[in-house]
Amino acid sequence: MNEITPDLSRLERLEGIGCSRKRREDPRFIQGRGTYVDDIHLPGMLFGVMVRSPYAHARIISIDTSKAKAHPGVHAVLTAEDLKPLKLHWMPTLAGDVQAVLADGKVVFQNQEVAFVVADDRYVAADAAELVEVEYEELPAIVDPHKAMDADATVIREDLAGKDVGAHGARRHANHIFNWQIGDKDRTDRAFENAAVTVKQDMLYPRVHPCPLETCGCVASYDAIRGDLTVWITSQAPHVVRTVVGLLSSIPESKIRIVSPDIGGGFGNKVGVYPGYVTAIVASIVLGRPVKWIESRNENLTTTAFARDYWMTGELAADTDGRIKAMRVNVLADHGAFDACADPTKWPAGMFHVCTGSYDIPNAHVSVDGVYTNKFPGGVSYRCSFRVTEAVYIIERMIDVLAQKLGIDKAEIRLRNFITKDKFPYHSALGLDYDSGDYEPALRKVMKAVDYDGLRAEQAAKRADPNCPTLMGIGITTFTEIVGAGPSKSCDILGIGMFDSCEIRVHPDGSAIARMGTISQGQGHQTTYAQIIASEAGIAASLINVEEGDTSTAPYGLGTYGSRSTPVAGAAIARASHKIREKARKIAAHLLEVSPDDMEFDLDQFRVKGDPARAKTMKEIAWAAYNNVPEGMEMGLEAVDYYDPPNFTFPFGAYLTVLDIQKRTGEIKVRRFYALDDCGTRINPMIIEGQIHGGLTEGFAVAFGQELPYDEQGNVLGGTLMDYFLPTTMETPHWETDFTVTPSPHHPIGAKGVAESPHVGSIPCFSNAVVDAFAHLGVTHTGMPHNSYRTWQQLRALNIAG
Amino acid sequence: MAKKTAVSFTLNGSTVDVLVEPRELLIHTLRDKLAHTGPHIGCETTHCGACTVDLDGQSVKSCTILTVQCEETQVLTIEGFAKGGQLHALQEGFMQEHGLQCGFCTPGMITRAYRLLQEIPDPTEEEIRYWMAGNLCRCTGYQNIIKAIQYAARKLRGEVVETSHPLMAEVSL
Amino acid sequence: MIPRPFAYHAPDTLQAVIALLSEHGDQAKLLAGGHSLLPMMKLRFAAPDHLIDLRRVKELCGIVMSGDEIHIGAMTTEHDIVASALLAEHLPLLVETARQIADPQVRYKGTIGGDVSHGDPGNDHPAVMLALGASFVLVGPNGERIVPAADFFLGTYATAMEPDEVMTQIRIRKAAAGSGASYAKLKRKTGDYATAAAAVVLRLEGGVCAEVSIALTNVAPAAMRADAAEASLMGKTVDDAAIAEAGRHAMEACEPAADLRGDEEYKRAMAGQMVERALRAALLRCAA
């Protein structure tokens, strides 16, 4: 028998890193036994609904709740006046602003929360909500952010009167939130002055919404006798919610239990704290009964955390060979009526400064202005790490604009500008330190897989044929992500550093429980976290029970968003595992009466160096940890790790898509999409592939259909799934995936995070392909979403549509 | 409050009696009164399919069905699929082919796929895409859902099935 | 998303339905598949005091051949239409249309009678009914009358049906030998209404157009016939030029309203494109 065989079977039993382990979450979900927030039914539970403003901007003249309160089955109707004595009518946002919990004198966006009706069930609550009478005096609404800072612009936030300085510095206008700049402006300007070639392009990344299939909601239950508050909530960051609830309510955090049960998708939408949560908690405290609040889809799409809404102007300076010398970006950011961006505190534009991308750009400068408009607040990531999608969009679009100006092939210009492998770790002009990357082989692998030259030849032939009914576009992106927020020296939320945590307890029988500060919303943490422990601590994944999401049991963590679980919590897990392993080493040495230094770790056991027959399995060691430990050692086998990462991680990828546009109708068919991702060490290839499929599909949705348009009065148009585009099986293209592996040098197992790359990378890839289809006609940009209507307008402007 | 009506129907093989207002939607009766929380509410406008149940041999979105319309009907929900501790082939397929992530759409997805396979036991990918278009998924991109349904179809036809994600494919010593 | 309270009735006979309608007048609404009405009620845009469910009225179901005509019960679902071998053989246009409506679940519940009688210009069957020259059997307290499709669609949510009438049957002549038909629909996504759609029925004689009907969906207050487009084709060889000409006439005829699907100009252009697309498909289906 081959000597390898037993090891392979032991490896297989461990189900460690690299295995396509089947998911531990699935048995409950496939049998309808998941526990999502709306599945929770408590004895005596009441149901709350919001009364919302029909106007985008209006003064509230009066609110009459008497009819609603008199309606049978109604228990309470809360307004701002009821919250004022508790000082709960306003709450802090994650961005250093405040947000009205219930409108205080004025409404500043359509569907803003005005009153909260609590009744026996959702039917009675819906009836009573109709009986709340609110009298409004309509005010002019600001919908276009370009008009927000006009001299005669209506003031949206009267509560900020006289505040010339906001959370991120000086405010130039009553509707101005901040100006944020990074990079060396003078050097960059000089580089532009001296450049052989410059290009400039305006582009809008429209307002979109993450729209997870489960809307937001909570069940708040206050036990007046014990003084305990328990809240089941759709949150991607339950510990942060606990701290916020503690700050707002003055209940000590030790008396607050926040539980994120199963979450039906988050994608950034479930990071913030929403008025519905606060009012449900207040109602439960006031009424002494559990109160459930669940959003409708329309409420979800029009009041909770949108993404993007960035008006960007990009500029590149280059030599005639297309080597980029400098980049300049100006952004006007529409943050809506309250600044509720979910970025690390110090970064009002998140990680937008990764916008120099995969390219060695020596000079760069970025300026972002945030303004208030009469739109709903948010500005979260939508499957991306804090504005990285916008950053990748602008550089990947701009490099195409430059290529077109110079007549250089769009793959070639990327190859000429890549940060080369020998330059890592790489310090970017905007101050980021890229951990690792190897871009050229990734792009070359993709070009080979799709026969890039053949595609360009086909495109040339089609362009030459006036009778061809379609335009063919080829889109390329070679993006670099920044995830794993983040080092606490630069990243915090409400002052709490963005570490993450893991606690592992190995039981006497060798099985273990592991608890983390993150919370899965579909990422499969119960499966993959156990794989890390399996490899790093030698305990079979099947023996490990992973728990997260309950603040009463899990160690404090900053939650799951921005692809931070693997880079941050994953590292904490690896380090806690190593602590377990090192203690196990000492116990094994003690049992075998040798020095710990003479022990070597071998998958699931420690053996004596040079005498492999003498070994103790982790199972044996675990038992011994509870009855026979070296003198002076504490009993038990457990470890805790709070991991503050030294840096972000920088996953990357090379994507290529081919699409065909019908000249007469603007209909677009994505013919092919090839996605190569490098996320460093791959923990579970099956789950990685699933994440990439999902991210690409969400990218497809953004690129081709999602938007939340407004009319001039500030009414949100298309706030249901009739209009808001969630692609079905019929629209979604087929995806091809590939990978390279460039581990992160600073992460304990070299992993980088992957869930967002396909979203971040695919959207500009689609836009690049659409523009590429028109490139021979002088088009350098076309706005998203690339629906047939907008594409037809482009065709018509070029006299192609007929 | 309007007068309530007694409604009897068969839910996953057992007779149930409920007292409902005529306006009560089937999804609320199932979830709030009958403790069947497998079907979910995703959109309320008949677009997402998370609330799909099988009603008298038809896939329907239970957010747009009144409970009073269900008198004397047979309702099958995801809770009725596994029998005697044995997963249904579709449940197995979704797990083996990684056809779910957050799991929110999964009960509706499986329930819909069940009826599809009753009507077309050997569907092509194109047919699956056409006949599954009433169920939205935000996580998976559908590709593995299609594989999961094909896996189940093969298993139900008595063919040999195996996952397309072998455990150790990327692992080497 | 909760409807206002109402009383529910599920009578067994047409007679009982009409009695209830007469009793409650405009306080009552008929419930067929419910996939247009119930969403409106959940949004509280509609709030009938009485809902009369037609599901138990057996005489409203079924697809049968009667001489040269096919009679389709008003409660026949889109799913039944898609699955009907009889329709596949004699009225394939109806099958092709139903396949493009909504999604599988909605098609199990949505009925042809509901789709036609709702008067929604976005619904797909009205244009097809116009193109096929269908007629509708309406039954009221004073008995039965038959209204041709051409006289039925009066405007947005306005039809020739009286509030106390029930549509019981749709009657359509089976497709003429050698004819070809098609329904071309441009939509943003599955489940959406048409941005523009066109139904075409075409028959050639001696290589030229001997018979043609063209009707449009969602580009006017109600489904409409494109008369000028039809006239432009009669007696002509249906070649690229003639098809383009018909498309232009259709564009001129329609009166679309701007919405999120596009502005008037775009919808007009797409009406033309869908007419062209449907004509080409119908032409291929005509017997040589």
Salient structural properties:
heterotrimer; A: 802 residues; alpha+beta; seven-stranded mixed sheet; five-stranded mixed sheet; 34 strands; B: 173 residues; 5 helices; 14% strand; elongated
Short account of what is shown:
The complex is a heterotrimer of chains A (802), B (173) and C (288). Chain B has 173 residues and is of the alpha+beta class.
Describe this structure in words.
The complex is a heterotrimer of chains A (802), B (173) and C (288). By secondary structure, chain A is of the alpha+beta class. In chain A, 28% of the residues lie in helices and 25% in strands. Chain B has helices spanning 26-33, 89-96, 106-119, 125-131, 143-156; strands at 5-11, 14-20, 52-55, 58-61, 74-76. In chain B, strands 2-1-5-3-4 form a five-stranded mixed beta sheet, with helices on both faces. Chain C is 35% helix and 26% strand. Chain C has eleven helices and 14 strands. In chain C, α9 (227-233) runs antiparallel to α10 (240-253) and α10 (240-253) packs antiparallel against α11 (264-285). Classes of the chains: A alpha+beta (802), B alpha+beta (173), C alpha+beta (288). Chains A and B meet through α1, α2, α5 and α17 of A and α1, α2, α3, α4 and α5 of B.
Please report the distance between the alpha carbons of the first and last residues of chain A.
Answer: 73 Å
Spatial order of the strands forming the largest sheet of chain C: 4-5-10-6-7
What is the structural class of chain A? Answer: alpha+beta
Q: What would the average pLDDT of chain A be, to the nearest integer? A: 96
Which range best describes the helical content of chain A: under 10%, 10-25%, 25-40%, 40-55%, 55-70% or over 70%? Answer: 25-40%
Largest sheet of chain C: 5 strands, antiparallel
Radius of gyration of chain A: 28 Å
Estimated helix fraction of chain C: 25-40%
Low-pLDDT stretches of chain C? none
Low-pLDDT sequence parts of chain A: none
Rg of chain C (CA only): 19 Å
What is the SS-derived class of chain C?
Answer: alpha+beta
Number of helices of chain C: 11
Strand order of the largest sheet of chain A: 3-7-1-16-13-14-15
With helices defined by DSSP (H or I, 4 residues minimum), what is the helix count of chain A?
19
Number of strands of chain A: 34
One letter per element, helices H and strands E, the order of chain C comes to EHEHEEEHHHHHHEEEEEEEEEHHH
Number of strands of chain C: 14
Strand content of chain A: 15-25%
